[in-house]
Amino acid sequence: MGKLLLVGCGKMGGAMLDGWLARGLAVADVVVAEPAEAIRPNKPGLRAVASSSEVGETPEIVVLAVKPQSMDAVLPDLKRFADHGPNGGSVFLSIAAGKTLGYFAGHLGKGAKVVRSMPNTPAAVRQGITVATAASGVSAAEKKRCHELLEAVGEALWVDDEALLDPVTALSGSGPAYVFLLVEAMAAAGTKLGLAPDMAMQLARATVAGSGELLRQSSDAAAQLRINVTSPGGTTAEALKVLMAPDGIQPVFDKALAAASRRSRELAG
């Protein structure tokens, strides 16, 4: 699979590393650069260092899994991998929110081969979804390799227009928080109807988690699954009259995602 350098091994970087190794990436083909000793991986045969400055050989791909606010500090040393090596230097695969292709071109050089991606937190259990976009110099073969790396923690999609990563961030990047809020809201509503808080939360968690797994395994559209559980004139139909009313859940989500997408543009600008 070629040599790979993982810069940053926090929750997301660690999940990606575990996914790669589970998919057959040899430990001898990956180096991890992580300054925090407490989270630096300790796996047999795996080379883990405190800084990328300790890495001499140019890797095929550099995966940037540090927090966005730390990116300025790590890129100066990594620029040497963009300038040298086989096939014009390393491919840089970033999972840092808000760091644009233009940002990386400014730090790594205009010819740097960069893939910008937006994963989400279910990647920690290999059930995430990531959307990526590539700079013009990234070849089809290099995109395929990045796709394989991203698929180790879930699904992966590509867009040609980088601007689409703002609504992607609003929908899937921030989306897990919306689902967790839904659990909180359902539990709170159940408590107001007389259920014990602990029971209401257990019911809400299990319902959302189970429904998500049903959705994952089913070939039916979400709308059809909703219809399947809604008996005419029944309790579900009565609740959906409220949730699907003109002033129900849809306009709230429209406003929420528009706000998140706008903020994503501001942070990237």
Structure description:
This protein is an alpha/beta fold and 269 residues long. The chain has 2 domains: 4-163, NAD(P)-binding Rossmann-like Domain (Rossmann fold, 3-Layer(aba) Sandwich); 173-268, Orthogonal Bundle (ProC C-terminal domain-like fold). The chain is 48% helix and 14% strand. It has an 8-stranded mixed β-sheet, sandwiched between helices. β4 (61-64), α2 and β5 (91-94) form a beta-alpha-beta unit. The two termini are 35 Å apart. The model has no long low-confidence stretch (mean pLDDT 95).
- Briefly note the structural class of the backbone: alpha/beta
**Helix count, DSSP H or I runs of 4 or more residues:** 10
The coarse overall form would be elongated
Secondary-structure element series: EHEEEHEHEEHEHHHHHH
| CATH third-tier fold name of the largest domain | Rossmann fold
Q: Please state the average pLDDT score.
A: 95
CATH hierarchy, class of the largest domain: Alpha Beta
Helix share, percent: 40-55%
